[in-house]
Design a protein that fits this description.
Elements lengths: L3 E5 L2 E6 L8 E4 L5 H21 L6 H4 L2 H6 L5 H14 L9 H11 L5 H23 L11 H11 L12 H10 L2 H13 L3 H4 L7 E2 L4 E4 L8 E4 L2 H8 L18 H11 L6 H16 L4 H8 L5 H7 L6 H25 L1
Antiparallel strand pairs: 1-2, 2-3, 4-5, 5-6
Helix pairs in contact: 4-6, 5-6, 8-9, 8-12, 9-13, 13-14, 13-15
Length: 351
Amino acid sequence: MPLEIYKRGNKYWVRGRTDGLDEYLERSLRTSDIQVAAARVAEIERKARQRAVLGSDAPSEADELTFATAVTFYDAKPADAKFLLKVLPEIGSMKIKDIKPKLVRDLGKKLYPNAACDTWRRQVVTPICAVINNAHQEKGTPLIRVKTYTAKERQEQDRARGKQSRQEKTPGSWEWLDGFRAHANRYQAALALFMFTTGARITQSILIEPKHLDLQNGRLWLPEAKGHPAQWVDIIPDMVVELANLTPRNGRVFGYQQRWGVYKAWKQACKNAGIEYIPPHAAGRHGFGTELIVRQGMDPATVAKHGRWHSPRVPLDTYIHSDKSSASVHEAFQRGKKPISAKARQSKKTV
């Protein structure tokens, strides 16, 4: 029977045979748009005729796969999907096998000329590589590996755009938190306390629903994030009281559906309090690491475990920030110098 398009659920499927196909075909077309479905069936028939004419010399599906087609079977997160929409006009029509690492690296500067190298990596290189390497698993196309931007390249781009990247973050502290909470709405006040005392990410925190709370046992179920599985997290007594008195909104404990809904009010609370604007991630996760390791002197292994880092090196390398100024370093040298100087003076007197 010839190829036939039919609907199963809300998606179109194809079934039947056509010239050049060795066996009966039945599979999803991965679309609910009949025009897209028809176009995909036409492409299946074109390739079948090509195989019928060329036989073993016909290019394989992997050879013909374009980046745009590979995107259709990649399960992108919302943020990555937004980045891919910007990439598609540039390389969508290209075959996967023709996309080389240098092209991907150079595309960042073309799309975001005034952005930092880290932005190029996050918004261009990473999502493109994810699509291509997913296609490798699904269709057997070549893998791609794109080397990171060097320190020299980052410095050159920073000079070109007149702004330094990777600036030192200011971590949250109890003093900052008290000022912020006094001028924030009740949901943001609770959210800030929660992230600071658990090290939770904002994307995890806003997903918490009333069913995730176990306040009687002083804990809650934290959703998964960045490779970390969902798990129970103990919370401090003050947080238990805060959550017990917080009325859930929009089905969420902290009242927000998306993380970007937090930032405007967060900035306004900082302005009203007359304090430095510290973004949620720095106030929370960076504040958690710095408070416990630097200010309270806890061992990094314990902090890493409760902050859900896979290694103590992660908070030490990224999430802790010194509160000391260069003056404190100078004072330390002076303290070390005094006993030595006194001993030297004593030796001279003896001689």
